[in-house]
Amino acid sequence: MKTKIFLITPPFTQLNTPYPATAYIKGFLNTINIDSIQADLGIEVILKLFSNSGLKSMFQQASNNRQPITDNSKRIIALQKDYLKTIDAVIAFLQGKNPTLALQICQGDFLPEASRFNQLDEMDWAFGSMGTQDKAKHLATLYLEDISDFIVECIDENFGFSRYAERLGRSANTFDEMYEALQANPTYIDEVLFSILKEKFETIQPTLFLISVPFPGNLYAAFRCAQWVKKDYPEIKICMGGGFPNTELRSLTEVRVFEFVDFITLDDGELPIQLIINNEQLIIENQLSSIKNVLKDTVSSRAQSRDEPQYKRTFLLEDNKVVYKNNTLQNDYKQGDVGTPDYSDLLLDQYISVIEIVNPMHKMWSDGRWNKLTMAHGCYWGKCTFCDISLDYIKIYEPIAAKTIVDRIETIIAQTGENGFHFVDEAAPPALMREVALEILRRKVVVTWWTNIRFEKSFTQDLCLLLKASGCIAVSGGLEVASDRLLKLIDKGVTVEQVAKVTRNFTEAGIMVHAYLMYGYPTQTVQETIDSLEMVRQLFEVGVLQSGFWHQFAMTAHSPVGMYPEKFGVVKASETVGSFANNDLFYEDRTGIDHDQFSFGLKKSLFNFMHGICFDYPLQDWFEFKIPKTTISPDFIDNALHDTQDFQIKPTAKIVWLGGMPSLETFTKTKKGNSWEMMTLTFHDKKESFSIQTNKMEGEWLVKILQQTNVFNSKMLTLQEIKKDFETQFEDFELFWFSKPIATLRSFGLLCL
């Protein structure tokens, strides 16, 4: 029997773009000639629910279930004809298929409105900076969220657009609550999910079912899918992997899990899945051999049937006990050998772009479809003490060659028709980003991309300009606790001042910046929390941050803080290891500070800062309890940005010219009876034209150098090589290099990298 794999992402992750795990695995399976089909069941369930027939069914279900409790749901039911009339048109608009509907949506009398629209009074000021399409997307998003509120109240209390029954998967030390939920009758949404699965299985007829579970909010639906397959297709083996098992299930002992799945794999999935496929094929071959043995009574084939199956980082059940098998001698595949992610089978033209927050950087997570790629496996820094740096997905750092990355970019663009890319690295390496940018420019590929970084000093002004020229529009990075003492304790390798300078370099290049922010880190004082807020306020006020998000510190089992809590001033509340998920740890901070109390004030202030307002509010105004005054100077960030060092360039710096070649005009200049030939070099930038003047010989030399350093050349010259060439004809290279004409070229794309 030919192997056919069915891979799914269970509900729910994102509405606007598929989570990439199944595309990565499908791309790998292509390299070993294994047939596979993938599906994002999240978007498929959403499209079933948010349709005329789906809403009609839910309104009927709600009337059968119970009367709505709140006035909000009563209003939605009263307006059900308006929802049924508009839902298909709104979904088509959010899929990019009906752009003219934006004009009607923005007029304000097309969409039925419930409680989510109450916030519009507070957000009218934001619409001035939004185009009609974005404003309509935001209003349509509120419309969908109203329907979501109705579903939660009247249909399924566990519903959420980007998560489903998340509480069952979060910090689930035991399997009891999940198991109990799975024994209950399927919910309405479960039944919708099952109807899609039934159709898929009848069409695909897979031999192996793979479930990728990236987040706690996918776990319940993952088990429901597995439960349905076990009931209706008991002969099909089921394997679970992904981000949730990788972090949460590393000490799994719960036998009941294997009532639903046959295998759970950890970390990189390529080799573990290949070995499972091989084992299943071997079982089939052995079964056929056994039949032949009965007929031929041969012994040699029986010996083969006793070969021990090979596994890589795989949990399975043996003798009613959970065992972990890692008995193969094969090494994991190199990142250059795993193939290009394959997005075929996914409903790429049916994803929904929504805008929950009007901040231009923040909305990128939910607006537009982004192809997901990785520049490097793991993290090149790998030191942050709050991070799970002991796990392979972070610990094992392996960059991919720039040419291979751009090969994959071109392949995916050809396949999907989309040129937007989100590089999902832990932290993209600056040197590799430079090479990828140069390769994109050399191949003249039109691509729009963004990624996650560390705010390190390697991101110079010139590197940021190069990244922008290649299509980079945004970066996100961890500022974490904006306190130098705590950044040192975290081992972040940056200071607040350095972060400010790097974010300025990105911002001035036209690249938006999002900062991940943290509060409640071990030993953090109230004063440091308030001072961190002041640092963040100043970064937004001077305009070098465009977006941010505060999250509270959580101690995980595989981070340095979790493994060595005594070094960080915390005490584990319990050493008990559960039978199911074991990653989030309960702990006590010896400071005794209640960090929860800061959550609302930090997030409310940030919401306003992201929209460019309320910088003059006293920090006390964000909190309902007394806080200390900040000890940070009100111009700390401003002073840091003006504290520039002397312009220095390493001799080994690569020189790259992004512009075109100039037109030349020579003329004679006379002064005090002396004459000499001069040259005017006129350049045409995309926005403007500009000219520089040099003496004729230096101008001719400069034209030659611009040709040699043009970005389309594969070989780059160093500053040292350029200086050596200059000094074969002229003197005082430094005087020439730091002259006004070269300074002008520097501002128009002559980069030192």
Q: How does this model look, in words?
A:
By secondary structure, the protein is of the alpha/beta class. 41% of the residues lie in helices and 16% in strands. A 7-stranded mixed beta sheet has the order 2-1-3-4-5-6-7, with helices on both faces. Helix 18 (430-442) packs across helix 19, helix 19 (461-470) crosses helix 21 (496-508) and helix 22 runs parallel beside helix 24 (599-610). The protein is globular and about 100 Å long. The two termini are 55 Å apart.
How far apart the termini lie comes to 55 Å
Class per helix and strand makeup: alpha/beta
Computed CA radius of gyration, to the nearest angstrom: 30 Å
Nearest-integer average pLDDT: 90
Cross-sheet strand order for the largest sheet: 2-1-3-4-5-6-7
Shape, per Cα inertia axes: globular
- Percent in strands: 15-25%
Spans of at least 5 consecutive residues with low confidence: 298-305
Helix content: 40-55%
What assembly state would you assign to the polypeptide chains in this entry?
single chain
Count of DSSP-assigned helices: 29
* Number of DSSP E strands: 25
Biggest sheet architecture = 7 strands, mixed
